[in-house]
Amino acid sequence: MGQNLVSLHLTEEDLVAVDAALRTLEEKLAVLVELSVDERRALTKMGEKSEAFCRQTLIVLAQNRQIIPAELDVREAENDLEQLDLLRPRFARLRQLATRADDTEMALGSDVMAAALEGYALAKVFGKGAGLDALRAAVGTRFSRRRSGGETPAA
């Protein structure tokens, strides 16, 4: 009674198409930035509550360009907002796909682990004298314990 959370059968053609699509995304989205942890912390962030303020302020500034100093690039801020509006739905789709990819990776690994554990249990019970002693010994290290101030499972 084995676990089977997911069963994939991607063909070589499927994988070639996926790789091509990923390459296209990487090429088209090469302009995306990658921020360090410190950069992320230091940024002034626009959350949901402040977005309306930002939008309204840009409208007012656009209508009163004569009061804006040259160092405040309102056109660039307007462009940033426009690009944000265009990219948000795509980013949401990418996040959903990445979440499904993470879940599928976890499910595939879990299926493999469940089958291996079940097989190991069978090898322990039925493997004596059937030439499986070496396998049992090698795989058994996964469950061995070592003493270091207390018993802890081996990594």
Any key phrases for this structure?
single chain, 155 residues, mainly alpha, 5 helices, 2 strands, 65% helix
Structure description:
This protein has 155 residues and is mainly alpha-helical. The protein has one domain. 65% of the residues lie in helices and 4% in strands. It has helices at 12-28, 37-42, 48-63, 74-126, 133-140, and strands at residues 145-147, 151-153. A two-stranded antiparallel sheet has the order 1-2. Helix 3 (48-63) runs antiparallel to helix 4 (74-126). The radius of gyration is 27 Å and the shape is elongated. The chain starts with 11 loop residues before the first helix and ends with a strand. The mean pLDDT is 89.
Biggest sheet strand order reads 1-2
Portion of residues within helices: 55-70%
Overall residue-averaged pLDDT value? 89
Q: Ranges with pLDDT <50 over ≥5 residues?
A: none
Biggest beta sheet summary = 2 strands, antiparallel
The number of domains: 1
Overall 3D shape:
elongated
- Count the beta strands: 2
What is the N-to-C order of secondary-structure elements (H for helix, E for strand)?
HHHHHEE
Secondary structure tally, helices:
5
